[in-house]
Amino acid sequence: MANAAVAVAGRSTPEYSIWRVIMASSVGTMIEWYDFYIFGSLTAILALKFYPPGNDTFAYLAYLATFAVGFLVRPFGALFFGRIGDLVGRKYAFIVTLSIMGFSTFVIGLLPSYATAGWFAPIVLLLIRVLQGLALGGEYGGAAVYVGEHVPDNKRGFYTSFIQITATLGLFVSLIVILLTQYSMSKEDFSAYGWRIPFLVSIILVLISLYIRLKMKESPIFAELKATGMTSTQPLKDAFTKWPNLKNVLISLFGATAGQGVVWYTGQFYALFYMQTVLKVNVKSANIVVAIALLIGMPFFTVVGALSDKIGRKKLMMAGCLLGVLFYIPIYKAMERAAGNNVVTVKSTRNKVTGATGLTAMTTDATGTLVPAKEAPNPNLTMLVLLVFVQVLFVCLVYGPIAAYLIEAFPARIRYTSLSLPYHIGNGVFGGMLPLIGLWSVAATGNIYAGLYYPMIVAGMTFIVGSLLLKETRATRIWDEAGGKASAAD
Description:
Elements: E1 3-8, E2 11-12, E3 16-17, H1 18-41, H2 43-46, H3 56-72, H4 74-87, H5 90-110, H6 114-117, H7 120-148, H8 156-183, H9 187-194, H10 196-214, H11 220-227, H12 235-240, H13 243-278, H14 283-297, H15 299-311, H16 313-339, E4 345-350, E5 357-364, E6 370-372, H17 381-399, H18 402-409, H19 415-431, H20 434-445, H21 453-469, E7 485-489
Antiparallel strand pairs: 1-2, 1-3, 1-7, 4-5, 5-6
């Protein structure tokens, strides 16, 4: 186990177990991502639970819009909790965010459906998503900064990459819990009440994580800054009204986090949505495909993080964006072939019996006539796993080094505030809007690949801006800010 012996301003602080710090931070962050993503993982079921029956298209779009609200408010959570983190401390801020997220998720598990409570249900669901978004907006920055301010400068990419795993791990755990719940009961029972279980059980994990976090100590760099009166008294003003730092925020947003956000959501969430909704792969099978691909891909976050300590953060992040631009359409065409369903378009259709409207994937019969596609009878799941795994590798390239980059790009006294905003605009707005924009694009054009144009454009923009303006931060020594140096015994 690695211990960091930190000498700051000539004084030695107690030795910290780096792995204990990482574990305490990562578990709580993973739980927050799990809470946030079970909402999206259950789209196919919950969209029809919380909105009026009879118009499936409206239900899906309304649900995805509610899902997107959680992303859109994340920057506000970043500002609010980032300010608290730079004023009061990193530890306090992400204890509060975990509490808010855990309570909100538990309430979703108790929420009545539209059939029971009418419009009360989707309105409360929307309010809960706002709370979840605010909480997540403050969580990631706190966890990343907390870990980054404990570890040595020359291994920051490696150690912070474990925080980067938490988002993918949260999605993976959400899929596993959903699959286990589905396999433990009938399809009808899961649809009736079983979907509540993944929301309710998370409260146990939240309480355990809160207990662990309450025993954590403050970041040694922040503790030293606070003890010497070097913290910012107005972090929002210092971060966003002074041009050098604001310029750095804007470059980080358009040259790093925007592209990283769309690559992340394309390679994991959109891949799941595409298989279930467009290619008509069985919901359980699609969940299994993505879960296996995520499990295989997760170790590569640390591989890329460690590599960024050797060759730099910028090259790897730009490579991930460029690969997405070049290969998304070929990959998704290959996924269509692997599903074996020959889906050629998506049309808005109306059920003559019930009057319900919805988006229907269309294929051609033997005469060349368009007919609704049935569930994919025999998809090549191994090939689908491989194709999603390749997309996860793109995610690793852009996401593995980005925490280290953001920590090194901003000064300690306003670090929490400064890095949280571009991260959550990039992920929450640019990335979080992807499922909704993707579905709308497919519905508007009938082109099953139209949902890929948006992430390709954003990733392309990030590649250009980042290649031209993003600074390499690998050699940055953040310990020098507090007047001391760090060493680590491994």
